[in-house]
Amino acid sequence: MSVHPDVRRMTVPQLLACKGHRKVVALTAHNVSTARILDDYVDFILIGDSTAMVAYGLPNTLSITLEQIAQHTAAVVRGTQRACVIADMPFGSYQESPAQAFRSAAYLLEHGADAIKLEGGSVMATTVEYLVSRGIPVLAHIGLMPQYVNTMGGYLAQGRTEESAKRVMDDAKALEAAGAFGIVLEGLAEAVAANISSAVSALTIGIGASVSCDGQILVTEDMLGLSGSRVPKFVKRYANLENEMRQAVERYADEVRSSKFPELQHCFAVKKD
Ligand SMILES: Nc1nc(=O)c2c([nH]1)NC[C@@H]1CN(c3ccc(C(=O)N[C@@H](CCC(=O)O)C(=O)O)cc3)CN21
Ligand SMILES: CC(C)C(=O)C(=O)O
Ligand SMILES: [Mg+2]
């Protein structure tokens, strides 16, 4: 990157300044071609651990490694200029201790991330404070936490009982006090998301948590119709790129088989004399 880039990347303080003024727009990406397109439209791009599922075909988000997320982060950074880039901390890279979390988060910042995201409520407050006080902006993630799939027994919406609603509100307040600049609210009852969004000064980013959040995020493959038929209830399909890709690939296959492609314009001629 040049010393004086014409285009400035959105910073975490600028993201936070959106609270109460305008909605924050976010999507996931893990490669250059997608990141380059998103860069013109979103405030931040998340390299989600959902990459495990949408890019690697793994059954859940648990087995993607820090090294994999770091490489996908570097790719997204190379494909973007304006969007803030936030990397998901993979399972096992931060739960052990604040020091372990710092080492992992620093590794992701070394690969170009502007901030990191980690899952967990009050239990992560000490870790969040440790990271933020040492220069690493933290986006927290509560409600439906996919890295807890084995203890939760599934991807279940949260905040639907009084007890659950109170727990999630307490988590949000603990993370705010620890210094998280934002909190992803996933799979959360609408009223609870609304209460949290007005109770905390941190930015709330919803996914399946209603329009009351300060911003929204979705997995890009889901909203583009590229992740098959089984998508979470909270996904809205803005395109059906699977159909488009099928049509294009079918046409290519037909043209190769019928020798219609390639044509002369796609070929090199021998140089004259
Ligand atoms: N492609 C993709 N999109 C995602 O949004 C996503 C991932 N992968 N991987 C990690 C997690 C898993 N997510 C999920 C997966 C399934 C449901 C789901 O099926 N939920 C039920 C409701 C469950 C209940 O509370 O009863 C649903 O009907 O949507 C929700 C979130 C969200 N995250
Ligand atoms: C959907 C977002 C919030 C996420 O954590 C992911 O993609 O991994
Ligand atoms: Mg994630």
From TrEMBL:
Keyword presence, Coiled coil: no
Positions in coiled-coil regions: none
Membrane-spanning segments: none
A family per Pfam: Pantoate_transf
Sites where the protein binds Mg(2+): D49, D88, E119
Presence of the UniProt keyword Methyltransferase in the record: yes
This protein's UniProt keywords: Cytoplasm, Magnesium, Metal-binding, Methyltransferase, Pantothenate biosynthesis, Transferase
GO cellular component terms, semicolon-separated: cytoplasm
GO biological process: methylation; pantothenate biosynthetic process
Cofactor notes: Binds 1 Mg(2+) ion per subunit.
Pathway involvement of the protein, from the record: Cofactor biosynthesis; (R)-pantothenate biosynthesis; (R)-pantoate from 3-methyl-2-oxobutanoate: step 1/2
Entry's Gene Ontology molecular function annotations: 3-methyl-2-oxobutanoate hydroxymethyltransferase activity; magnesium ion binding; methyltransferase activity
EC number(s) given by UniProt: 2.1.2.11
Binding site for 3-methyl-2-oxobutanoate: D49, S50, D88, K117
Essential cofactor(s): Mg(2+)
Reaction catalysis annotation: (6R)-5,10-methylene-5,6,7,8-tetrahydrofolate + 3-methyl-2-oxobutanoate + H2O = 2-dehydropantoate + (6S)-5,6,7,8-tetrahydrofolate
Function of the molecule: Catalyzes the reversible reaction in which hydroxymethyl group from 5,10-methylenetetrahydrofolate is transferred onto alpha-ketoisovalerate to form ketopantoate.
Self-association state and partner proteins as the record states: Homodecamer; pentamer of dimers.
Family: Belongs to the PanB family.
Descriptive protein name: 3-methyl-2-oxobutanoate hydroxymethyltransferase
